[in-house]
């Protein structure tokens, strides 16, 4: 599992564990069903001030920022790295700070070793960042605060549905595919008590869902071809805010990890977490793979309900492997560690940006010389000029991340987002 796939995996679990399928264009399958009215006005905006919530009580950096936030479940591949380079370029081009965050909300699939390797790889292709690396596991108390705000506004309800329940419900004649039909929203309190008890006997606790007051929401989308006039609109449903699941073993009421119902206090959904994370670090611009485009309106709606400023999205095409599916490890040598040097990856990424950047091929190739990679433009003088003034030890490759940073800086100086290809990028192996 790669970073971006991981994130998508989380997305697909939002609605209770079933995979969302988008209907093809022009499909008439999405018949709207009347929705239960929300218990609170749809425009209710609880007062959620990230400055107050900042860790340690300190002020959050006010400067607007972009970010990259990989999920540490394995090494980043070229597609992830390309997106990271683009996130860096877009942020720096806008004059924003650039934040780095480890999206480890799924603790079971995350490891600090993977996170360290990802950060090392990002540094070795020249990506720097402002401020400390943060992580979702550090922000759990902030997710709890955000959830309480929504609960206080009457916008959260318990969902007792199993994965199977939801699959069956979404197959019903008038269901919107992939959209939670609100089964548990209208239960009365007696029904809730019974359903909660039934789950409890199975050793499980309910999920918590947002009582959405809208069917769709729009976001500012600066790049995707699916946006119209810089605006993208998509469905919003009663998304999961905190997952249900098995009662945490040995967790007694009041203990750390207990949510008051004997459940998973910390199993927050990505759609809630990401919104809070971004607000805490002043993120105004989110650049990521376009597999996450359809989840942007959900996240923006949650941000709206929390009274947070909307972010601007830039969803960039995924890199596709030789088979036309998204690049994955099955496609061969696709991580930095599979390659002779990060230079190969950097060269490929810059080439893939087409006319959006103008970096002399010689400059990149001379970087290759610095790590002894055979290139067609071998040039020892360039190597000695470049030196090995590494500020980041990138392992045994004897490679200077400062040199890569200089290349990225050149790319930034010439970066023209309007010239960035909108089509998916194909990867067919590295050619030197
Ligand atoms: Zn339900």
UniProtKB/TrEMBL annotation:
Pfam family, one: tRNA-synt_1c
Family per record: Belongs to the class-I aminoacyl-tRNA synthetase family.
Assigned keywords, A-Z: Aminoacyl-tRNA synthetase, ATP-binding, Ligase, Metal-binding, Nucleotide-binding, Protein biosynthesis, Zinc
A GO term from the CC aspect: cytosol
Name of the featured protein: Glutamyl-tRNA synthetase
GO MF annotations, alphabetized: ATP binding; glutamate-tRNA ligase activity
Residue spans of biased composition, Basic and acidic residues class: 1-31, 379-388
């Amino acid at each position: 599992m790669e970073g971006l796939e991981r994130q998508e995996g989380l997305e697909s679990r939002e609605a209770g564990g079933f995979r969302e399928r988008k209907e093809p264009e022009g499909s008439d399958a999405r018949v709207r069903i009347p929705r239960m009215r929300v218990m609170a006005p749809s425009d209710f905006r609880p007062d959620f001030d990230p400055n107050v919530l900042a860790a340690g009580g300190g002020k959050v950096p006010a400067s607007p920022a972009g970010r990259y936030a990989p999920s540490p479940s394995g090494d980043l591949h070229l597609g992830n790295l390309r997106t990271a380079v683009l996130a860096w370029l877009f942020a720096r081009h806008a004059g924003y700070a650039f934040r780095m965050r480890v999206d480890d909300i799924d603790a079971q699939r995350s490891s600090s070793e993977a996170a360290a390797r990802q950060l090392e790889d990002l540094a070795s292709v020249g990506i720097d960042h402002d401020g400390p690396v943060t992580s979702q596991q550090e922000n759990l108390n902030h997710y709890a605060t955000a959830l309480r705000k929504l609960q206080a506004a009457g916008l959260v309800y318990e969902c007792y549905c199993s994965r199977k329940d939801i699959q069956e419900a979404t197959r019903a004649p008038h269901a919107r595919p992939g959209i939670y039909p609100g089964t548990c929203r209208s239960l009365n309190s007696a029904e809730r008590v019974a359903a909660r008890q039934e789950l409890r006997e199975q050793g499980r606790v309910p999920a918590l869902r947002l009582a959405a007051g809208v069917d769709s929401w729009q976001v500012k989308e600066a790049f995707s071809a699916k946006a119209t006039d810089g605006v993208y609109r998509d469905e919003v449903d009663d998304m999961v805010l905190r997952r249900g699941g098995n009662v945490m073993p040995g967790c007694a009421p009041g203990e750390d990890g207990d949510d008051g119902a004997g459940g998973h206090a910390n199993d927050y959904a990505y759609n809630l977490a990401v919104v809070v994370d971004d607000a805490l670090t002043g993120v105004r611009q989110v650049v990521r793979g376009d597999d996450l485009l359809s989840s942007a309106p959900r996240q923006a709606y949650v941000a709206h309900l929390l009274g947070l400023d909307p972010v601007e999205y830039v969803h960039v095409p995924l890199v596709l492997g030789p088979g036309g599916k998204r690049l994955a490890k099955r496609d061969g040598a696709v991580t930095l560690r599979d390659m002779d040097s990060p230079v190969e990856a950097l060269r490929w990424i810059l080439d893939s940006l087409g006319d959006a950047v103008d970096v002399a091929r010689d400059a990149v190739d001379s970087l290759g010389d610095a790590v002894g990679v055979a290139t067609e433009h071998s040039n020892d003088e360039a190597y000695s000029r470049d030196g090995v003034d590494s500020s980041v030890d990138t392992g045994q490759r004897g490679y200077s991340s400062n040199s890569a940073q200089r290349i990225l800086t050149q790319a930034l100086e010439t970066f023209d987002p309007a010239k960035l290809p909108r089509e998916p990028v194909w990867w067919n192996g590295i050619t030197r």
